[in-house]
Amino acid sequence: MANVTKADFIAQVAAQAGTDKTTAAAVIKAFEETVQATVKKGDSIVLTGFLKFEQGQRKAGTARNPQTGEQVKTKAKKYPKVSAGTSLKKVVNNESPAPKLAKV
């Protein structure tokens, strides 16, 4: 398995959409900013069948330092939560064919 860099991802999106890398980069940047702002407000984004972005919340509690055994209080926190949708899960598990990608 190879890691896809952001630059590689932008190039693939540009090829797939039939546009230039600058436009693809702007769209991806706008997507990132929209997801961040929406999830920060506490709203969720559901891309049906693909992904769900939402805000999770951890309660305050206690944890233990594994080196010293000392009990440590933890603060309540919010965190980003991403869940895979049904169609993405089916593609990953070879239950559905993956979309054909354009040549980069």
UniProtKB/TrEMBL annotation:
SUPFAM superfamilies: IHF-like DNA-binding proteins
Record carries keyword 4Fe-4S: no
One GO term (biological process): chromosome condensation
GO CC, alphabetical: cytosol
Disordered: region residues: 57-79
Gene Ontology molecular-function annotations: DNA binding; structural constituent of chromatin
Pfam families: Bac_DNA_binding (PF00216)
InterPro entries: Hist_DNA-bd, IHF-like_DNA-bd_dom_sf
CDD domains: HU
Keywords: DNA condensation, DNA-binding
Stated family: Belongs to the bacterial histone-like protein family.
PANTHER family: DNA-BINDING PROTEIN HU, DNA-BINDING PROTEIN HU-BETA
Protein name listed in UniProt: HU family DNA-binding protein
Organism: Iamia majanohamensis
